[in-house]
Amino acid sequence: MGKYFKIKLELDNSSAGLWAPIMANSAGEAVVKADERCFGTPFTICGMSVTEIDIIEYRSLLTEPAKKYNLFSLDAAFMNYKLDTGY
After folding, report:
1. Backbone phi, then psi, for 29, in 5-degree steps?
2. Which pTM was predicted?
3. Roughly what angle, to the nearest 10 degrees, separates helices 74-85 and 55-69?
């Protein structure tokens, strides 16, 4: 079973951003997963923002955008941000 991480993603050319929850076996794998998800989006990973978290915080990060759009994934976090900002 994996560990839980959060990674800060920032909108290109802006200080606006979001925390993305990632389940991975290591911090390095979490960065790779976040980088793959950011490909083709206006988001970049903030340097040194990978933080290991517990399952409660992980689920909280998953459910905040899901409450609004009834979705449960990292894609929900991106969709939430895109709909709220117009990006």
Report:
1. -65, -35
2. 0.69
3. 50
The per-residue pLDDT for range 11-67, each reduced to its tens digit, is 888 777 788 899 999 999 999 998 888 888 888 888 788 999 999 898 888 776 555
What is the domain partition of the chain in residue ranges? Answer: 3-85
Enumerate the H helices of the chain as residue ranges. Answer: 27-38, 55-69, 74-85
Residue 67 C-beta-side C-alpha neighbours within 13 Å: 5
Residue length of the chain: 87
Residue with tokens 């490909």: 39
Q: Which two tokens stand for residue 28?
A: 């390095």
* Ramachandran category for residue 86: left, alpha or beta (phi over 0 → left; psi -120 to 50 → alpha): left
Task: Report residue 78 as tokens.
Answer: 């991106």
